[in-house]
Specification:
The structure is a single chain. By secondary structure, the protein is mostly beta strands. The protein folds into five domains: 3-109, Sandwich (Immunoglobulin-like); 113-202, Sandwich (Immunoglobulin-like); 210-362, no CATH class; 365-460, Lipocalin (Beta Barrel), CATH 2.40.128; 464-572, Beta Barrel (Porin), CATH 2.40.160. Helix content is 9%, strand content 49%. The strands form 13 sheets. The protein has an eight-stranded antiparallel beta sheet with strand order 35-34-33-32-39-38-37-36. Strands 40-41-42-43-44-45-46-47 form an eight-stranded antiparallel barrel. 39% of the residues are buried.
């Protein structure tokens, strides 16, 4: 318009001021933004912000074929018809009083397609994998993979080359590799292509030295012999063996069992043929080991003292199939008490079973990420995740896609009571059921039936291999007036008291010193950018177990405000 009214009583008109501060936005960034599109993919860049009235928008030079600007709103949209290199485009906002400009940089990519790798692939622990180089058409800026690769292998996020030397055996599993570009930044419709790689990692050849862990809580000082390897389990319950060799465990002259082929994780269930979490022989072994514990508290590990080990050299063998263990162990309990001056007490079978279950749950607890697919389209994968909790419950979630129906299910007491590493999940409204099996504490797979039938698989994050594991509720709030978010934190702490985990989409890292926890929580927020917050709290061990509680305090408008808070309980895993 030409004028907005009169001024000073002169009868003259006031010229319309020219618009100023014209900007397009992507996320929380404004200015000379880089706009990236893909051929054949619909695109929209929302209209700009500007100060003052605007009667029209224009652009120079002409936008790529298939893309246009709305002259009234400044919205840029369309479906690009051909690829073009990055180039600057000047946007002008005008009115009768003048104009203002801004520059954006546009690129049109060719969507990636036809991604392939050599597949299937068989690797071996300790042997470098021949590098797998992708074949792909179109423009690719990054590669990603789900689930996570076995330890020692990596996918280069820029080149897509998969290489490394695996350090962990893994049963055959499908890994979905995605190649994508930066097209349609700031708008829906980015382009990508995927490939399903079948990969297995075989264990080292027979005779290769290896290390395993005996797990009934953490048992320190348990005797073992495996070929030329012998000694007692260390502070993490570890023992040594040769691949393919058997292993026997004992306390003095009391043999508690033999495993025909040693492996990385052995529990009392493995010590007897067809053993389960309810087998009398297994529970008697657990009762015996708990009785030997130096401080009588198996939650913080079982430590067999050197004095008890020396006394056990003269003990008679024990028949762990007996139905009267107190009588069978009576003389041994007395001898152990005399040896180290501790009053050793034999727990009952119910207590032993509860301890066995609790330690089993702790071993497998942690966060797992992977993929799922419907049987009707096995190559079409969606993201899948699961939290396995120390109380025996499991929460599994499949994030729905445009072609896959998602599901979400939480089940208490999800494990098979036999503790055979299988689990079952179920829910109603909607009706969901799933069954799975852990081949080891780092990998599981299974089947589900929800809106469709299909399969899932997932691998653990570092929290699963932690010495201590914690789970509990958290709350997060940007400021006193914003929405209060809540969820479950799954954290791990290693033997060096380094804490790590993921909370509200951010990474938590810190250190426990004595009873004090100090660390940082960081994440990228689309609107706020990179957040880094100091976190402090307390680590305790009491009759109720391990706890880790902390909070991040942010000074908001001159007042301290708790932005993040969590309260977790934990268990010792190794």
């Amino acid at each position: 318009m030409a004028d907005v009214g009169s001024a000073g009583g002169t009868g003259g008109s006031v010229a319309t001021p020219a618009p100023t501060q014209l900007f397009y936005h992507i996320g929380n960034y404004q200015g000379a933004i880089a706009v990236r599109m893909n051929v054949g993919v619909p695109f929209t860049l929302e209209g700009p912000t500007v100060i003052g009235a605007v009667t029209g928008y224009s652009v120079s030079p002409t936008l790529p074929a298939g893309v246009s600007m709305n002259p009234s709103t400044g919205i840029i949209s369309g479906t690009p018809l051909a690829a073009s290199s990055e180039a600057p485009y000047t946007i002008t906002a005008s009115n009768a009083g003048g104009s203002t400009t801004t520059t954006i940089y546009l690129t049109v990519y060719t969507p990636p397609s036809g991604l392939t790798y050599a597949s299937p692939v068989n690797g071996r622990v300790g042997v470098a994998l021949s590098a797998l180089v992708p074949t792909v058409s179109g423009d690719v800026s990054s590669y990603a993979i789900l689930p996570a690769l076995p330890a020692g292998l990596m996918l280069d996020p820029t080149s897509g080359v998969l290489s490394g030397m695996p350090s962990t055996a893994r049963v055959p599993a499908t890994y979905t590799i995605t190649a994508s570009n930066q097209g349609n930044q700031g708008a829906p419709g980015s382009a990508s292509t995927t490939f399903d790689l079948l990969l297995a990692v075989d264990p080292p050849p027979a005779g290769t030295p290896a290390t395993g862990v005996f797990r009934d809580s953490t048992v320190i000082g348990l005797g073992f012999v495996s070929g030329a390897h012998n000694g007692v389990t260390d502070s993490s319950g570890a023992f040594s063996y040769d691949m393919g060799q058997g292993i026997s465990f004992f306390v003095g002259q009391v043999a508690i069992g033999t495993v025909s082929t040693a492996k990385a994780l052995i529990t009392p269930i493995d010590l007897v043929a067809h053993g389960t979490g309810t087998t009398n022989h297994v529970l008697n072994v657990v009762r015996f080991l708990m009785m030997l514990d130096q401080d009588g508290d198996a939650r913080n590990g079982i430590q067999i003292s050197a004095a008890v080990t020396a006394a056990a050299a003269s003990w008679n063998p024990v028949d762990f199939d007996t139905t009267d263990l107190p009588t069978a162990l009576g003389p041994l309990i007395q001898s152990a008490s005399m040896a180290d001056g501790v009053t050793h007490v034999l727990p009952d079978a119910a207590s032993a079973q509860a301890r066995l279950r609790s330690d089993f749950f702790c071993t497998y607890s942690g966060h797992y990420d992977g993929t799922y697919a419907a049987n009707s389209a096995p190559s079409d994968h969606g993201a899948f995740s699961a939290d396995v909790f120390p109380d025996g419950s499991i929460h599994a979630s499949a994030n729905g896609t445009s072609s896959l129906a998602g599901y979400d299910v939480v089940t208490a007491n999800a494990w098979n009571p036999l503790l055979d590493a299988s689990f079952a999940l179920s829910a109603q409204s909607p009706d969901i059921s799933a069954q799975g099996y852990f081949s080891d504490p780092s990998y599981f797979s299974g089947t589900y039936l929800a809106a469709a039938a299909g399969t899932f698989e997932a691998v653990s994050d570092p929290s699963t291999g932690a010495t201590y594991k914690f789970v509990g509720p958290y709350t997060y709030q940007n400021d006193p007036a914003s929405t209060l978010y809540s969820g479950l934190a799954v954290l791990g702490m290693n033997a060096s008291n380094q804490v790590s985990g993921t909370i509200e989409g951010g990474s938590l890292h810190g250190t426990v010193t004595g009873n004090t926890f100090v660390g940082t929580w960081s994440r990228y927020d689309y609107d706020l950018g990179r957040e880094v917050r100091p976190v402090s709290g307390n680590f305790t061990y009491t009759a109720s177990g391990y706890t880790l509680d902390a909070q991040a305090i942010f000074n908001f408008s001159g007042t301290d405000f708790t932005i993040l808070k969590f309260s977790t309980v934990g268990c010792r895993a190794n």
